Amino acid sequence: MSLFRQLWLTVILITLASFLGSFTVSILSMRSYLEQQLHRKNVDSASSLATSISQLSKDPVTIGVQIAALFDSGQYERISITAPDGKVIAERVRELIDTTVPEWFSDIFPISVEAGHAQISDNRMHFGVIKVVSNDRMAQQVLWDQTGKLIIWYLVASIVSGLVGVLILRGIKRPLATMVDQAEAITERHFLTISEPRIPELRSIARATNDMVRRLHNRAIEETLQLEALNKRMNHDPVTGLANRGHFMNRLHEAVDGGDTVHSDTGGAIGEKPAEETPMDKGFLVLMRIGNLEEINEKLGRSSTNGLLRQVGAIMDSISTGMPNRVIGRLNGSDFALIIPHINDAAQLLNSFSAELIALLSQTGVDSVGFYHIGAVRYRRGDRPAEILTGADTALATAQGKGAHTWHIIDASYASTQLAAGSIGDWRHIFSDAVSEDRFKLVLYPVVDAAGALLHQEAVVRMQAVRNGGWLAANDFIPIAARLNLTGPLDLTVVRHALEYLQSSAGELAINISAETISDWNFRNKLEELLRQQPDLCSRLWIEVPEYGVFRRFEAFRDFCHTFRALGCRIGVEHFGHHSTELQKLADMGLHYLKVDASFVHGINQNKNNQKLLKALCNLSHTLGIVVIALGMQTEAECKALIKLGFDGVTGPGVKDAS
């Protein structure tokens, strides 16, 4: 029973007990008063009549006239005169008077009145005894009428008390409801403070919960700052703030590690799956080398040289702004590197880079002879990182051979059977036909928890570009769909296939939604309508959005979380880690889980720096109630290290061995 029902029950019981007690006391007091008054009246009437008869002659007519004069007033039930020998000299008796008093009331509250007695004398001789009995039916009627008035009064008083009770309970319920909202906000990782109520007892509770919320908030801020500092210290160059060599190489591995392998589902279904789905499936690796850094350092000094290096990093950042998943790093003292996915021609970018560097040289007054050279290599998903770096070094050496301040681009050799964009016709028609003919399928791979049990299946979409043709991996067509603003129909198809899978299979399923779709209100509404038709399946559906898309469309993602969490879906961020310092913003949206990017996971059993970073990330995530899953786990050693660091689940090529 709820607290307010208990309070209402208490109020009702107290009011009822008060009413019954007061009613009973009032009725009994009134009955006692009526009995006393009737007895006194009987005594007074008997004495008065005895005195009157004693002064008159004692003949029967005179005595009868005196008794009749009193009896005819209608207030007496019986008047009699009895001689000393017990003989009745005269007597008048009235029949029972009809009243509106119920018999049950007379039985519960009977009125018993003692008769009045007085002696009649005759010349100082005892003549007889007169007995007067008042009519108690009239008193019973009076008692009944007063009872009705009491009941009406108590009903009015009860109604007024109830209204007052409602106002008082509302005054108590309002701050309690606010405190409940605060508690629910805490469970949703929202740090909400409330105003302190006027009620002293509730004020102390509200003050305590507000203090707790402030401490939790401050703790989350402190851990976020520590995580940010640790991330910068472990994975970033202290001078420029760019990714250091180790972190940059992990990102390069992520960019090109996308080969498909065959895995067996723990539930028996077999399907091919990618070791790791990533949007960075092709692009360029740009390597820039400063040729005379020692001379610059001697001329400008350490502080100015560091400023110059930071400006070089800022130029690389500005020329690649707006390119998703670009990665900038400083490999050593004089070498800077840039990964740029999803571009087919880097010539314009390298021209802009050269122009910015020459402008920088003119501002600093440094001898510009041989200051920089740039080499760029085109890579494709599946190329080996070592070969890509070798190609970049070759391109850089070629640029150095051309003279000062030059750049050169080469293609890395690769054997790939993937279709190039535009080689099979118009992509808009390809997507339209594939959607209309439903040439899509989901391939699954397991995500397991720390104990090796299946946490959920992760679904990756495949598409047939041509009828009866081969199945393209998501990396081969999703970036093109994003550029053509066609991710909405594809994601809608993925959700339909996911719901069909959940209808026919047990367990839970995770799907990836493009950042472009979550900001497309038309398809967002269609997705919402589709999920509302299957409310029982929503609780088994995990929906994740890539990190780079979340922060590109932050407000749209906030609304997306609010809408689809209300449907019962679990919302997560995939490839997380490069915006780890923004975790608090995500927690305020009620995020359920994170999938940490494979670039942080690769070789984690040997990377002490990333171990500290990921442990801090897990601690902060668990404080905020967020599940943490590692992507791209390849070996059992990595799995053990990840579980020890606090990860709730893992996935990747090594899952079969780990489970």
Automatic annotation (TrEMBL):
Species annotation: Nitrosovibrio tenuis
Keywords (A to Z) from UniProt: Membrane, Transmembrane, Transmembrane helix
Residue ranges of every copy of the EAL domain listed in the record: 424-659
Residue ranges annotated for the HAMP domain, each copy included: 170-221
GO MF term list: cyclic-guanylate-specific phosphodiesterase activity
Signal sequence bounds: none
Domain GGDEF residues, every copy: 281-412
Transmembrane segments: 7-28, 151-169
Pfam families: EAL, GGDEF, LapD_MoxY_N
GO cellular component: membrane
Lineage: superkingdom: Bacteria
Protein name according to UniProt: Diguanylate cyclase/phosphodiesterase
Gene Ontology biological process terms, A to Z: signal transduction
CDD domains linked: EAL, HAMP
